[in-house]
Write a structure and sequence with these properties.
Elements (H helix, E strand, L loop, with lengths): L1 H38 L6 E6 L4 E6 L9 E6 L8 E5 L2 E3 L2 E6 L4 E6 L8 E7 L9 E10 L4 E3 L3 E5 L3 E8 L8 E5 L4 E3 L6 E5 L4 E7 L7 E7 L2 E10 L5 E4 L2 E4 L12 H42 L2 E3 L20 E9 L15 E6 L4
Parallel strand pairs: 1-9, 11-18
Antiparallel strand pairs: 2-7, 3-4, 3-8, 5-6, 6-7, 8-9, 10-12, 12-16, 13-14, 13-17, 15-16, 17-18, 19-20, 21-22, 22-23
Amino acid sequence: MYMDMRKTWKNITLSLYDCRIIRSKFIWVFLWLVVGAECKTGDAVRSFTLQTGGSLTIPCHYDTQYIQHKKYWCYDAGAAYNYCSILASANETKGRVSVIDHPDQSLFTVTMTNLQDQDTGTYWCAVEIKGILNMDVTEQLYLAVQSAPDVSVVSSSVSGDEGGNISVKCLYSSAYKNKHKQWCRYKDKSCYTSQSSSVQISDDERESFTVLMSGLMLSDSGWYFCSVGDRQAPVQLTVTGKTATTVTSSTGVFIHAASFPRNSSQTPGGDKQQNILHLKMWLPLLVLMLLMMILVTMATVIQRQKLKTNNINITHETPDKACAKPDDSVNPECDVTYSSVIKLHQTKACSPVCEEENVIYSSVCEQN
């Protein structure tokens, strides 16, 4: 009897324990569903209208702490992130979708080509966070593919030089004529709605407005949006630094230090150090050019000396009776060779009897 009661109590205890486990699991699943539903919208929803048959490239920013995490692009027509279908992950292309990660900019870009009406729907920029209780970091976007987009741009990619300016033309449909127009930077969510020293917005009220950015700096590079009402059109801006210029003269090559790229955040001391660095970089080239000039000069001098030496030609002739001039000082028993030296600038040939000043007599004796 005692043993039966003990066994019964044990079974009841195990049953209660199992119920606690099941209830705990149910609570976690419920929380996961609730949190997941809350995470699908994020801070704000970006909405784009796109041309049928066209393409789109958009940025998805993420925090620097997620640089090593997996990034992906997913889609779900029902706007529920928990059930979205992954179309492509970072640094891969699947069908008409390509995803490229740019860790140096803390963003990845998504490119979709040959857009069709059925591509309309809700999409998600997502960064994978591993762990059962850790939700992925996501941002919701809405894409509407239309034959005549509500908002678009003439060019989705523009570039300009540092210190210069760029112009972007944004287009909108007649239904958005009275909507609020803005020029926004995606990275810091800042928008321009009125004139400023660097950004000017002019609406021609004929279904387009123009954005003019002047005094460009390298830090202005990034992604922007033409925003009209609740619609956006992405634009990528690239600012390039000034290139170095050189001035060549007869005495060498000079570097114009002011033409080197300069970041707007540099101090005067930084400029001086950068100019010194450029000078050190070009110094070996200047030394090499100087050595080449010296070698060319030496070769020219040597060549001129050779030409000057060759202006005189010395010839040896056999003894000639007509040119011999007996002299008592010459030993008759010795073989005598007469040598005449003729200057090249003389035009007249030597006559049978040579003139006194053009003949040198010498005697050669063999010694026994």
